[in-house]
Amino acid sequence: MTSDLVIIAGGGIGGLATALTLHQIGVPCIVFESAREMRPLGVGINLQPNAVRELYDLGITQSDLDAIGLPAKEWALVGLNGNDIYSEPRGLLAGYNWPQYAVHRGQLHMMLHDNVVERIGPHAVRLGCRVTGYRKNATGVSVLVAHAGGSTSEHNGRLLIGADGIHSAVRAQMHPAQPPIHWGGAIMWRGTTWQKPIRTGASFVGLGTHRHRMVFYPISQPDPRTGLSMINWIAEVTADNTEGWKQSGWFRQVPISEFAHHFDGWVWDWLDVPALIGQADSVFENPMIDRDPIPTWQDGPVTLLGDAAHPMYPTGSNGGSQAIVDARILGACMVEHGVTPQALAAYDAKLCVPISQVVLRNRGAGPFGLLNLVDERCGGTFDNIDDVIPETERMAFMAGYKAAAGFAIEALNTAERTIEEGATARAVSEPVPGL
Fold first, then answer.
1. Can you tell me whether residue 197 is helix, strand or coil?
2. Gyration radius of the chain's alpha carbons
3. Whole-angstrom Cα distance, residue 144 to residue 146?
4. Model pTM?
5. Torsion of CA 304, 306, 312, 318, to 10 degrees
6. In 10 A of CB 148, how many CB atoms?
7. Handedness of CA 214, 220, 221, 224 (dihedral sign)
8. Are 273 and 236 in contact, with CB atoms under 8 Å apart?
9. Rounded distance, CA 299 to CA 343, Å?
C-alpha cells in the first residue's frame, strides 16, 4: 500500500463504483463493508443515461447490463381513470447517446462487486467491517473499524470516502447536529411479479395520484417460452405522519393482505393492479425517507458520496444513478488535483449544492409532481389532459427536472468524458503505516 491509499466506507453501489473508478485512475483503495456476505438484495432500479455512460467508461458493457435488466423505452404517468397524463420515450429512443436501463438492483450490486474483486483483488472488499468513525492526522486520516466478531481496528489512509448509506457513521461524525431521518408520510410496499409487460414492453408507468399510486416496470427480458417478464412494482400511500414512523425498523417483510385493500378496484382493460400485487412472491414495506441537505460533504481528508451525501426520495429514479456519477466526478477531481483534500473540495463544490436541490425536488414529488398538478386541478380524473395541463407546461416541467438531475439530453450528449481514457491521478510513493 502507498500513502495514496483511499479508504471507502460502504460497499454499496456508490462505494463499489468508487473503487472501480479509483482503480481505473491508478489510486489504491480498500472497501470496508458491514455486511458479512454480499447478497443480491433489493428489487428494481433505473439507471439513467448519465450513469450508463459512466458504467460504459468503466468497462461495464451493454451485454453486462442486458444480463441484469433491459433498456427502458418509455416513461409514462397515468391518471386514476387510466388516461395518459404524460409519456415520453427514454434512452436511445429519446435521442440520448446511451440507453436508460431498468435493472435488478441486487444483481447490479453483485456485478459491481465481482468486477472490483476481479480487477483489484480478493481483499479489495473486506466484509463484516463497519467504519464507525475517523481521526484526521498530519498525513491524512485514521479510520476506526468495528469487526463482526467484536474486535476493532484502526487503518490509515490519505482519504476516507463515506459511502455508508443513509445511516452513515461518517456523516454523523461530520455533522453531529444533523436532524433525524425525515419521513414525509409516504409508505411504500415493494415486490416483483411475473407478468406480461404492457405498452412498449419496457415502459415505466406511474399510475394514480401523488398520495396514492402504483409504479411498475419490467426488469427482465420476456421469457421466450411464456412471454412473462419480472415486473418490479411499488405501491404507495401517504399517511398521517404527525406521530412519526411507528415500526421498530425501516424495512420489513409484510403479508400482502396488510395493504392490498388500498388498491381494490384498480382494474382497467390493460392492467389489473390487485392481481399484480397478489401474485408477488414476497413484499417488503418501508417508509419513503431522506435527510435534510447539509452545507458540505467534506471535512478535510474525508468526504461523503451516494446516500451518505444525499439520501433522496426514489421519486426521480436517480438515487443509484447519482451515486455512480458521484464516483466518477470524484475520480475526475483526483485526476486534476491528486489524492488530496483539494480534490475533495473540488468534488464538493461541483456537486453538493446542485444535488441538494435535487433532494428537495424529489421531496416535492420530483417528476411525479405532475400528478400533484392534475390532482389539484381536476381530482385526478379527466378526459383530455390538455384541458387540465397544456402540453407546453407538461414538457417544461419535465425538462426542468432532467436539467436539475443531470440528464438533459443535449447537455449530456455534448459533454466531454468525465474521465479521459487513460487518465491517472498523481501518485505518492511513501508507505502508509498501519496497513
1. coil
2. 22
3. 7
4. 0.92
5. 150
6. 12
7. negative
8. no
9. 12
Task: Tally DSSP H helices, then E strands, for the chain.
Answer: 11, 22
Q: Which of 233, 228, 226 is nearest to 201 (CA)?
A: 228
**What is the rounded distance in angstroms from the CA atom of residue 125 to the CA atom of residue 38?**
10
How far is it, in rounded angstroms, from Cα 194 to Cα 242?
Answer: 37
Return the C-alpha cell found at 330: 470524484
Q: Are strands 74-78 and 203-209 parallel, antiparallel or unpaired?
A: parallel
Q: How far apart are the first and last CA of the chain?
A: 7
Identify residue 357 by its one-letter amino acid code: Q
HEC assignment per residue over 97-157: CCCCEEEEHHHHHHHHHHHHHHHHCCCCEEECEEEEEEEEECCEEEEEEEECCCCEEEEEE
Select from 261, 256, 271 the least CA-distant residue to 78: 271
Q: 396 with 402: CB under 8 angstroms? A: no
Which grid cell sits at 127? 466484509
Which residue is associated with the grid cell 461530520?
174
Name the grid cell of 120: 483489484
* Average pLDDT per 10 consecutive residues for the chain, totaling 435 residues: 83 98 98 94 90 98 96 93 90 95 95 98 96 97 97 97 97 96 91 95 91 93 95 92 71 93 94 96 90 96 97 80 97 97 98 91 75 84 91 88 76 94 74 42
